Amino acid sequence: xxxxxxxxxxxxxxxxxxxxxxxxxxxxxxxxxxxxxxxxxxxxxxxxxxxxxxxxxxxxxxxxxxxxxxxxxxxxxxxxxxxxxxxxxxxxxxxxxxxxxxxxxxxxxxxxxxxxxxxxxxxxxxxxxxxxxxxxxxxxxxxxxxxxxxxxxxxxxxxxxxxxxxxxxxxxxxxxxxxxxxxxxxxxxxxxxxxxxxxxxxxxxxxxxxxxxxxxxxxxxxxxxxx
Length: 227
Known about the structure:
Layout: E1 16-22, H1 27-41, E2 45-51, H2 54-62, E3 68-72, E4 82-96, E5 120-124, H3 131-140, E6 146-151, H4 154-162, E7 168-171, E8 181-184, E9 191-198, H5 206-220
Parallel strand pairs: 1-2, 1-3, 5-6
Antiparallel strand pairs: 3-9, 4-7, 4-8, 4-9
Helix pairs in contact: 1-5
């Protein structure tokens, strides 16, 4: 792990390690994809992946216990360290295919969330960095949802929609082809921001910057489901 803050430090030698924070749901897939490319360029750099939630990553970055953290910036949460933008990712509405609200809508791809004010919802749990944004979307839509179920796993939310239990709001990455679900965008197009976070004042080595570059390429070209 590099502790340098000078641009001429020895962190640019092609040997050492990078401690990388990743969230369990999305981080592992990205790293598995980009690691073969990274190791070709930096064969003697060890990447140390650590599956940690966003708030813990932020704390560890501040204490210099991680070199990088790939996180969704928490809505309204002050970030005192530095970060590099990766992508914006839209939040979409997932609805059971037989929900009466969408009956007869045909090929409509966008809908006002307020139309579902009387429907049941399953949503991400309160400890998630995504939850404040989800709460704000409901608030801006003018209603408090009837919540049946909360979970730490977005894929669980999709499964609950698929079995007809309720509707949900999820980042678009979790929207997968499913003949039991219809997905919709919202008029305000709410979104999250995925970033690479690092300690304020810390010099990013060439290896770290290359890893960020690969991550940005991965997420920019990710095959999102076309709603």
